[in-house]
Amino acid sequence: MERLKLKLPEKKLFETQHTLRIDDMNYGGHLSNDKVLAIFHDMRVQWLKEYGFSELKAFGSSLIMTDSQVQYRAEGFQGDQLDSTLLLGEIGNTGFELYYLLVRKSDQKEIARGKTGMAFFDYDARKVARIPDEFTKYIEGISYGTD
Fold first, then answer.
1. Which of 43, 69, 97, 127 shows the smallest number of beta carbons within 10 Å?
2. pLDDT at 121 over 80
3. Distance of alpha carbon 70 from alpha carbon 99, whole angstroms
4. How many degrees, rounded to 5, is the angle at CA 122 between CA 116 and CA 127?
5. 3-state class (DSSP) for residue 142
6. pLDDT digits (tens, 9 = 90+) for 89-113
7. Which CATH number fits domain 11-139: 2.40.30.20, 2.10.10.70, 3.30.70.3040, 3.10.129.10?
8. Neighbour count for residue 116 (Cβ, 10 Å)
9. CA dist., res. 28 & res. 18, Å (int)
């Protein structure tokens, strides 16, 4: 059976840390799959907030998620501190890819990685919008490298 394999891009956008809470755990006692997506969402919101944006007001437009993928690599447990990295993938005419990496700080074990497709969205017209110039300028100012 073919398994999902996400290759991480090099363009780092944001880094933060998360401490796994008891309500992040599932019945098996480890990090719940739905909480991984919630952590990804939190990372995205923190990144935007750092630049004075939100998902509703981002780079002169709004953002909407078009798809998501998660690859689970190891169990995460209550109290684990995670180094969390947000990376930029491909960019299209109306959107871009964000990649997420969660690594347990204590042993550098990768817990999960993921990808979301993000589109710029005009909520008044209820349709996808072209990438704003403000976003293009922001991306051009980012240096490459994951170190």
1. 127
2. yes
3. 10
4. 80
5. coil
6. 999 999 999 999 999 999 999 999 9
7. 3.10.129.10
8. 22
9. 20
